[in-house]
Amino acid sequence: MSPLNIQKGASKHSAYDLRDPNAEVIETHTLAVIVDNESGVLARVIGLFSARGYNIDSLTVAEVDHLGHLSRITVVTSGTPQVIVQIKAQLERMVVVHRVHDLTMEGPNVQRELALFKVKGRGEARIEALRLAEIFRANVVDSTLESFVFEMTGTPQKVDAFAELMQPLGLIEVARTGVAAISRGV
C-alpha cells in the first residue's frame, strides 16, 4: 500500500488534536447591564463573576442617566452557551440591576475601544511607526525625541492588530479603556 493510500484512508483527526470533540464551544458575548449608580454596585456585580469563576475579557462603566442615577456596565465575557445563560440569569436577579442586554444575541452592534500606545524608537523604526499610525488613523498625542504616544479608537481587533505591528518597532506600554458597545438601529 502506497503512502498516498494510507493517507486517503486515515482519520480526519490528528492524533495530536487533544480537543474534546464533545466539548461545548466557548462563545464571547457583550453584555450591557443597567444598574443603580450607587456605592458598591460595581463590586457586587463583578463579585458575581469572580465568585463563580466567570472570566471578564473587558469591562467599562459610566453613569448614563444623571437624573435616574443609572450607570451602564459593559462586560465582554466568554463561556459555553450554558454559562452565558447562567451569567445573564444571575445578573437579572440582582436587586441593583434594572436590565441586562446581550448585545451579541440582540443583533448587529457597534463596538469601540480607545487605546494609548507608547512607542520608543529612532531612525527607521520611528518613521515606520509614524507610517503605520497613519494607516491605522492613530493620532500622535505626545512626542519626545525618543518616543511617541499614539491614540487610537477602533474595534478591539483593530487595537490588537496595531499593538502587534508596533511590538517590533519599540512598543513599551499600552493603556486600553475596554469595549464600549451599543446595538445598531432603533
From TrEMBL:
Functional pathway: Amino-acid biosynthesis; L-isoleucine biosynthesis; L-isoleucine from 2-oxobutanoate: step 1/4; Amino-acid biosynthesis; L-valine biosynthesis; L-valine from pyruvate: step 1/4
Cellular component GO terms, alphabetical: cytosol
Recorded catalytic activity of this chain's protein: 2 pyruvate + H(+) = (2S)-2-acetolactate + CO2
GO biological processes: isoleucine biosynthetic process; L-valine biosynthetic process
Function: Catalyzes the conversion of 2 pyruvate molecules into acetolactate in the first common step of the biosynthetic pathway of the branched-amino acids such as leucine, isoleucine, and valine.
Annotated transmembrane regions: none
Name of the protein described by the UniProt record: Acetolactate synthase small subunit
Family under the similarity heading: Belongs to the acetolactate synthase small subunit family.
GO-annotated molecular function: acetolactate synthase activity; acetolactate synthase regulator activity
Key words of the record: Amino-acid biosynthesis, Branched-chain amino acid biosynthesis, Transferase
E.C. number(s) listed in UniProt: 2.2.1.6
Class of enzymatic activity (EC top level): transferase
Annotated source species: Roseinatronobacter ekhonensis
Subunit record text: Dimer of large and small chains.
